[in-house]
Amino acid sequence: MKVRLIAVTNPLVEIQNEKLSPEGLIAYCARVSSPHQENLDYEKLLAYCIKNRHWSIFEMVDMTVEIVTSRAISPQILRHRSFVFQEFSQRYAKVNNFETCSPRRQDSNNRQHSINDLDASTTRWFTDAQEEIRALSVEKYNEALEKGIARECARMLLPLNTQTKLYMKGSVRSWIHYIEVRTDAGTQKEHRDIAQEVRDIFITQFPVTASALGWSASAR
């Protein structure tokens, strides 16, 4: 799993010979009806908008991240339809990499929760099973390609832990929702780890907004 920042909206507006930050642009757009639109002080404004759920202003700025994960997790990410995505295509490129999952016990009271308390022998069995399936899948996948079978067909032989890469672009508003939902304990751990990495990036890029939301990099 890997997450990294790709892009953030780059404002062109300057006030007092100072280029606006992305959060400054959010405030600038929020003050569209105000005679004080060029006010560079916006901490209280953004906090007020969050407190009173004036979310539309947070759609004025976008952020794009790159996510490397497994095909088991990428469909969960793609469910967030307010985002725009580009994903690695197994139809056009050969697959080479795989993710490894550390097993957890199914919670008998919550189908969306797992518990990290399996014994060492069970963990070892699951790790070995993943490797056996990966090795067999890769062998048959490569054989299929050598026989001239199209990549779009050969990929049917690949397991869900096949690695994929996505670019995910959305507004600050969408990222706030995504982070709140996917850092919750009900999210699968592998996806939650991604969301926590995204939150750390968000905190760095939008510190005023993150502070108003009560987020900090240490809050994992």
TrEMBL record:
Gene Ontology molecular-function annotations: flavin adenine dinucleotide binding; NADPH binding; thymidylate synthase (FAD) activity; thymidylate synthase activity
Keyword Membrane: no
Domain of life: Bacteria
Coiled coil feature spans: none
InterPro entries xrefs: Thymidylate_synthase_ThyX, Thymidylate_synthase_ThyX_sf
UniProt KW keywords: Methyltransferase, Transferase
CDD domains: ThyX
Xref: Pfam families: Thy1
UniProt enzyme class: transferase
Gene Ontology biological process: dTMP biosynthetic process; methylation
Enzyme Commission no: 2.1.1.148
Family matches, as NCBIfam families: thyX
Protein name: FAD-dependent thymidylate synthase
Organism whose genome encodes this protein: Chlorobium phaeobacteroides (strain BS1)
Lineage: Bacteria, Pseudomonadati, Chlorobiota, Chlorobiia, Chlorobiales
